Structure formats: structure tokens, C-alpha cells
């Protein structure tokens, strides 16, 4: 769809979900399974969100921490893990699910296709003056974009390090190296980026990682940020070839098309997911639970990990419901949270849980509420 100077459009469904990342897809599936007609809208050409366009290598948050074997946090987590089909891998205290480029998007597409009640509108960017006609609305954009355009209160969290996934091939398996060695070499160059490598399987053909950038680049335009990422990847490869024998013939196999953001605008609710709630564990309020630690990338010294209560942390429904009349929900990265809370809520496994819950709640409201019409406005900072 050509977004330049187009006329206002009208989008209508029982439940409209904006954003087709893990939380949006999960929300759409839950709402459709509950018997409502769903419209899923996304500006990209396919589902997947940051997992897909930033080229991330793992789905985090599907498994309980500190277990000798991978145990799913919920039936939904099990369903997604089985649909992807890969074997989990342990990294430190946590298990993750490795994925190949495009694999999550392909899996999400197949799952959406099983629900005839879901109509998808990709390559569609909502704009001011567009009309939304709905019984319930879900903002799964990850940046509270629709909440802002609906005039609901949002706030910005602290800028953190953006990142993009990459894969390096052409490594000499006969040469010894370690990620610590490589990081020390790169640190001496005083670059404004920091790579983090996945544990290397010496039988594998490539090394995967994420290139992290200074929070100073958080506010850059997406195109400029993508150009900066490619420039930094070239610099990193040049440094690796010069300083580490194993990388003397290394080349870039692939990288994410866009740089993923770890922070952004959130719903400014009365109840926020914050450090106290992460550590508290139990709450009598209805909602869902997450188990992944807050991975807070405040600077290029690396992430600060805040591990939650052993029984996980609660995300009450109040963090998801942005408006009662009309019924509007938010999920994933843009739910009501502090900067630290957003660092825990943004991982894909937690997004799947909050998305499912938002879809359930939206479907409940859709069955008992009338039709609502919302004219989107130019977003303003609040």
C-alpha cells in the first residue's frame, strides 16, 4: 500500500489488532479462537515483528529458569515451541529456542492461516484521519503508537541499546578463539558498538550474534539506523579479520533488515510493571506471568540482569487495559511498565503470554459491547 498522501481509510472488525509481532499474532489467535472476527494490521509484508526484521536468533521466555531440562512456562509456550520445531538450548540459567532467519514469520503465518476468522492486512500503516470501527482494539505495535493516536496517555521509557542480528561465515575451525577474546580485541578499538555472540557450536558453519549500538542511536530514523548498522558490521568484520586468526577469511552471511529497539513508548497506566513487581512474585490480581529476567541494556557495558521471583512475576490485566470505553488494550513492549519492567516484558515468550491475555479480554468485551468508531489523530507526546 502506498502511504504517501493517501486518502483516509476505514478499518472494521469485531477486534482490530495493530502489530503482527509475537504479541499481536498471539492476540489475534486468542480473539479468533474465542469466536470473534479479527482484523490484524501491520506495516510490514509479513508477521514476525522485531524477531523477523531485526534478524534475532532465539525466542526467549518460553521456558522456566533454573531447570536442568527445558520446561515450558505454559501450554501456549509449548504450542509455539512445537510449531517452530527446533530443540531448546541452554544459555546460562535459561533455556532459549533457536530460530533460523524467517522461521518465526513462517510459523506465525501458518498459525494465522488455521483461523478463518482472522483477516490480515499487511503493508498497511495506519495514519491520522483513518477510521477504526471495532468492538475492541489492541495496540500491539510495541511503541504504543495507536494509543498515542487515540489520545490515550503514553510515556517514554529510558533509551536503551538498539540491536540487530547477524551471522558470520568463513571461520577457520582450526584456529582457537573465544567470544571473550573477540570482545577484548574489539573493545580496544573504542567503537560505538558491542557484539554479543551466541555460544559457538564448533561443528557449525557460522557464528551468530547481535550487534548492539549506543542508546544515542535510539532516536535515529529507521533508515539511518539501518545504514549505521551496516557500516558498523563492516567495521566489526574488518577488525576481526585483522585481530583474530580464526576470522581472517570471515564474511557476513546475513543480517537483520532493520534495527530492533529495546525500549520505546508505553501506556501510562496507574499500575506499572516495575522492579518491585518483578521481585514480588505473587499477586491476587488476574493476569499472566512471566519468567524471563529483565535484560536492561542501558549502555555498551552490557546488560544488567534483574532476575524475577522464583515463581515468576505477575502482569495484571490493569497493565494491559488502556481504556474501558471504548475497550482498548495494549500488549507486549507497550504495556504499562517502567523502563526496567519493559526490559522484562519485551521478550517474545512474555509477549506471547500478554498478547494471548489481551486477545481473550478483547473478545470478552467484543461479545458484550456495541460498535465503536475511532478517528486516529496525529500523535503527541504526553
Short description:
With 382 residues, the protein is of the alpha+beta class. 28% of the residues lie in helices and 24% in strands. The strands form 6 sheets. Strands 1, 2, 6, 7, 18, 19 and 20 form a 7-stranded mixed β-sheet that branches. The protein has a 4-stranded antiparallel β-sheet with strand order 10-11-9-12, covered by helices on one side. Strands 3-5-4 form a 3-stranded antiparallel β-sheet, with no helix packed on it.
The termini sit apart by 30 Å
CATH architectural arrangement of the largest domain: 3-Layer(bba) Sandwich
- Assign an overall shape: globular
Query: What value does the average pLDDT take?
Result: 92
DSSP helix fraction = 25-40%
Strand content: 15-25%
* Helix count from the secondary structure assignment: 10
CATH class of the largest domain, please? Alpha Beta
Strands, total number: 20
Structural class based on helices, strands and sheet pairing? alpha+beta
Q: Radius of gyration over alpha carbons?
A: 21 Å
CATH superfamily of the largest domain: FAD/NAD(P)-binding domain
Number of domains: 2
Keywords: 4Fe-4S, Iron, Iron-sulfur, Metal-binding, Oxidoreductase
InterPro entries: FAD/NAD-bd_sf, HdrA-like
Protein name: FAD dependent oxidoreductase
GO molecular function, one term: oxidoreductase activity
